[in-house]
């Protein structure tokens, strides 16, 4: 369980009831994503996969930045390793590990909230694109700088396209332009933009309250259903969704939700 999980100090975990905050914790490098950080995030989300006691995971960065992308020091170490083995495989393995981590966050059954400040670049941009709710400061700096460095946003690209569509993804990835929170809202990367730190915290708390009003199991099932809409035939998907709906109506959450509505009170899961 999460309480017994020992993770690298590149991240910090902070739990309040059903809310878990995962802090990216390399402020000296604007939370650049090292292999250790990638592995630590994977550990956490693997542990959370079947943990129904955690309803929300909040992704944040220490030191006023979310994430400035991949760690250049790791790339230098990979270059040495690739030279020593005479193969590009170390680069392949490193890059694919990052993609696996992004996919884990994307598929997490919990509601994932990204709180975006400062640098939201490269891998950090990709991580923002797999959040369910993204809140950012107006002066945050977004971008996909990979092509300007002679590389590709290889593992990030599919998730960026799903988030904002192919037309916008092409412009941002091929030009490598930087843009602020207001434009991030316009293109669909984020859902809300705030003007200062106090408003950021207020908006986050309001978001958490909304999440708590949704039934925990119904939220997990809904998120899974939404993901399936991208890949499955419509008729069979709707047939299965009808079965899930029937089970939910007759289940404990459906009954509690109905009674709470009739009795004009909040359902019991809002207290969790």
Automatic annotation (TrEMBL):
The keyword Isomerase applies. The keyword Cell cycle does not apply. SUPFAM superfamilies: ClpP/crotonase (SSF52096). It comes from the Bacteria. One of its GO terms (molecular function) is isomerase activity. GO terms for biological process: isoprenoid catabolic process. Keywords: Isomerase. Belongs to the enoyl-CoA hydratase/isomerase family. This is Enoyl-CoA hydratase/isomerase family protein. The lineage of its organism: Bacteria, Pseudomonadati, Pseudomonadota, Gammaproteobacteria, Moraxellales.
């Amino acid at each position: 369980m999460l309480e017994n999980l020992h993770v690298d100090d590149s991240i910090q975990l902070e739990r309040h009831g059903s809310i878990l905050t995962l802090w990216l914790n390399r402020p000296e490098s604007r939370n650049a994503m090292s292999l250790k950080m990638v592995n630590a995030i994977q550990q956490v989300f693997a542990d959370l996969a079947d943990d129904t006691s955690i309803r929300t995971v909040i992704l944040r960065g220490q030191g006023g930045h979310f994430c400035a992308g991949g760690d250049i020091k790791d790339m230098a170490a990979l270059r040495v390793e690739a030279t020593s083995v005479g193969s590009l495989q170390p680069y392949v393995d490193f890059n694919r590990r990052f993609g696996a981590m992004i996919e884990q966050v994307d598929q997490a059954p919990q509601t994932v909230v990204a709180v975006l400040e400062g640098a939201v670049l490269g891998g950090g941009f990709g991580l923002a694109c797999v959040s369910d709710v993204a809140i950012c400061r107006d002066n945050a700096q977004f971008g996909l700088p990979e092509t300007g460095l002679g590389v590709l946003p290889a593992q990030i690209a599919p998730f960026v396209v799903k988030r904002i569509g192919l037309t916008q993804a092409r412009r941002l990835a091929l030009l490598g332009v930087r843009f602020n929170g207001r434009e991030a809202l316009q293109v669909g990367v984020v859902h809300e933009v705030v003007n200062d730190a106090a408003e950021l915290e207020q908006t986050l708390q309001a978001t958490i309250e909304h999440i708590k009003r949704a039934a925990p199991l119904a939220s997990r099932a809904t998120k899974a259903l939404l993901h399936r809409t991208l890949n499955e035939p419509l008729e069979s998907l709707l047939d299965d969704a009808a079965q899930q709906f029937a089970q939910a109506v007759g289940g404990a959450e459906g009954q509690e939700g109905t009674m709470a509505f009739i009795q004009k009170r909040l359902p019991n899961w809002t207290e969790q």
